[in-house]
Each structure stands twice: as C-alpha cells, then as structure tokens.
Amino acid sequence: MQFVIPISRHGEPLSRQIYSGLRRAILTGTLRSGERLPSTRDLAEQLAVSRTVVLLAYDQLLAEGFVFGRGGSGTYVAEGLHSARPRTPRNPAKLRLSRFGAFAEQAAPDFPEKPAKSLPFDFSYRRSPVEGFPLDAWQRILLRRARKASAAKHEYGPPAGSPALREAIAAHLRRARGVVCDTSQVIIVNGSQQALDLAARVLMERGDRVAIEDPQYQGAREVFRAAGARLHPVAVDADGLDPARLPDRARLAFVTPSHQFPTGTILPLARRFALLEWARRANAAVIEDDYDGELHYDGQPVESMQGLDTEGRVVYVGTFSRTVYPALRIGYLVAPQSLVAPFTAAKWLCDRHTPTLEQETLAEFITSGAYERHLHRARRENAKRRAALLEAIDAYLPDVTVTGDRSGTHVVLWPQLRSAGRRGQSAEEKIIARAAAAGVGVYGISRYAIHPRAPGLILGYSRMSEEEIREGIRRLGSVLTS
Hints:
CATH superfamily of the largest domain: Type I PLP-dependent aspartate aminotransferase-like (Major domain)
Radius of gyration: 29 Å
Number of strands: 16
Number of domains: 3
Shape: elongated
Strand content: 5-15%
Structural class: alpha/beta
Low-confidence stretches: none
CATH class of the largest domain: Alpha Beta
C-alpha cells in the first residue's frame, strides 16, 4: 500500500511528522475505519527513515485510540472515527453566546486604542515610562528569588496574595496615600481591571444602579455594563464629580478622585465628604480607583478618600502598571473588614491566586526602598516633561484650556472647535486626523463620555523627551490654527 506523508529533515522530529500525517489522514477519512495501515517496515522503507521512527509514531496513534493492533495481522484504523469526522469540513458552528459573550464581542473593537501607524510625536497616555524603571535591580531580585524558591513556592499561593507583599503595600499606602488599613485588608489581584471585575461580582446584582463619572474610565464602564448594571452617569465639572447630581439610590459609585480619568480634575475635600455622606444615605459602596495617585507635582499630594471613610464603605483600588511596568499585572484592592472574606473568596473562584514569584520580587523591591527611589526619580523626570509641555502649550496653543496638569501623566486640552467636520466627522476626529497627518498622535475624550460634551484632546507625556514634546505641540499648534 502506497501512502504519501510529506516529511522534512528539519524542524519537528520525524516520528512526530509521521504521526501527524497518519492522524490527519484518519480524521479526514483518507484512511477509513477498519482499514489496515502499512506495516512499519514497509512505511519505513517508503519514507526512507528508520523503522524505530515509524514504531514511535504508531505507538502514539495506538495510545490515543486512533488505531488498534491485531496480533500477527497488523495495525488498523479504529472503528467509528470516520463517521465522527467527515472528509469535507462543515461550516463553522454558530454557537449561542451568553449575554456577556455577546457584550464582550461588541465591546472588543474599542480595546485598545492605538494609532493606525507609528507617529514620531505620539502623546499616548496609555504607556508607562518604563525606560526609567531600574530593570537591573528588579532582575537581580527576581533571579535571586527564583534560585532560592523552595518546592512550596511552586504550589498554589494564598488567594489574597503573598503576605510579604500585602504587608509592604499596606505600609506604603499608610505612609504615602493616607490609606487607613492593616495587612489583612489588602488583596492582591491581576491588575486594577481584575479588582473592578471582582467588585462588580461582589457588590452588585444585575439591574442594580451604578453611579459613574461622565466622562469615565472605559474599562470600569464596560465591566459594570457587562455585569448588567444600570449606569447613572454623573457629569464631571472643573472640580470633578458633583455629589449633588448623584441618584437617591444606587448600589455603588465609581470615582477617580485623585486625578479624574480622563479630565484630570482633583475632587476637593468638601465633595469627598459629600460623596461619603451620600453613600451613607444610600447605603452604597464607593470604589476609589487611585490609578496614578503616586504622581503629583504641586505641593503635597491629595490623600486617598478611603482615609476619610469611617463606616467601611470605600473599596480602594490601586495598580503598579503606571509606576513599575504594565506587563507585571499586579494590582491590589483594600477592602473594608466586612468585605475581606467575600473578596478573597471571589479572587479564589476567579483564578486561585496571582503568581507568587513576581509578588515576592515586588515585595522586596518595595521594602528595600528601591520603589520609593524609583517613584522619586519618576516624579522628577515627569515634572520636567510636564513643565516643557505647559511651556509649549503657552507658546503655541494660547487659546486652549488645560486640565489635569497637577498630577498624573496626561493632560486634556479643550480647544475652541466647531461641532462638526466634513463628511460626518466630529471636530475632535477631524483634529486627530489632521494631527496624525502632521506626525502627531493625540486622542479624543469623546469615546469616554456617555453624554455628548465639548471636544477635548488627551495628551500623555511620560514616554516623550522634552524636545519631542515641544516639537509635537508646535506641530499641533499649526494644525489647530490652520
């Protein structure tokens, strides 16, 4: 029996190539149920390979149930395989999606936002300043931890996270962000996005009302929508979310008080107290997302709203994506004592635990003082970039309003633009397209708003040099004045 199996002397082992060729022939019906395979000797001669190589391929097919052997007779294709897998592939199955699956499919095109091509002056606000991160020091700790890891370190870790990292984070937050907590309240998660997902699972039911800033962080909005929330957008003004506009009843409110995303406003103390008072009246929880509260430039940073909470209503969420590097995927939430058990159980149900080696590396990085030194350098370098940005805006964009320049790594420009461009383009889209043609990447604020609002442009600056910032703003000025 002549049977053609294309093989290559490079790449995969020969036995694997022969196994794959026979398996494919069986599944497509080229070799039918009950049909005898060539003897190992004949196939070896035909393919000019060792008989041992063919025996290895046959043994694998036998182990997986594709073939069976008859003593003294040979090797045959197992019964029932051809009827289960037709020769001609059918059309792909159209499986029914769940409500969440359909929602995720619709939301997917919006993530992430990237320019169509690489631009020389890209004011992307999603990128962290990884160039300044002390990678050598990080790698030394990581390698030392990996070499010393005992067998126990390769087992499942505690669902709430490494005790060493939880203690290091609690101490840092008490000192740097005014968070009132002990180690038991800190739960390690895979980035702040998982923290928001867990909060939606633990704190709300489908159909519950959730108050959210407008405009708002898109990742939070979509998490709550996917969970079936009825969103109640609350307009953001020059002082952030206005508590007077909150609904009488809601299950929870989501806020970014230290540097509102995306407008960059900072929620003043009076509004923070008013928000907590609303939560008391509504018997609601408040999720405080402090995504870049570590980066503040004018005077003392505004401390967390969680530190003002005396009733255990605030769930504080933080991440290292902005200050270490995004691929690390380590974040945390600080839960009120009454919610520690349900949040810990939810984390276990979701993915058991966050990788242990990276957690312990980060714990040592914090406790050694390396993290504080890195933050100090990052603030200093970002302050220089921020100063260059504001000077350039003053020189080349005198007719725009700027918000968000007191902290974080991005600002928002509010130019005076007409409401629409040609062919249905909004004024915002028109400016973004013209800026891209000039080599400048800027990003619109409208995609983060539920209700229409004035056009705005988000400009991140943490990954650009001062020279690039000045030239980028100069070009943007030419675009806006044209």
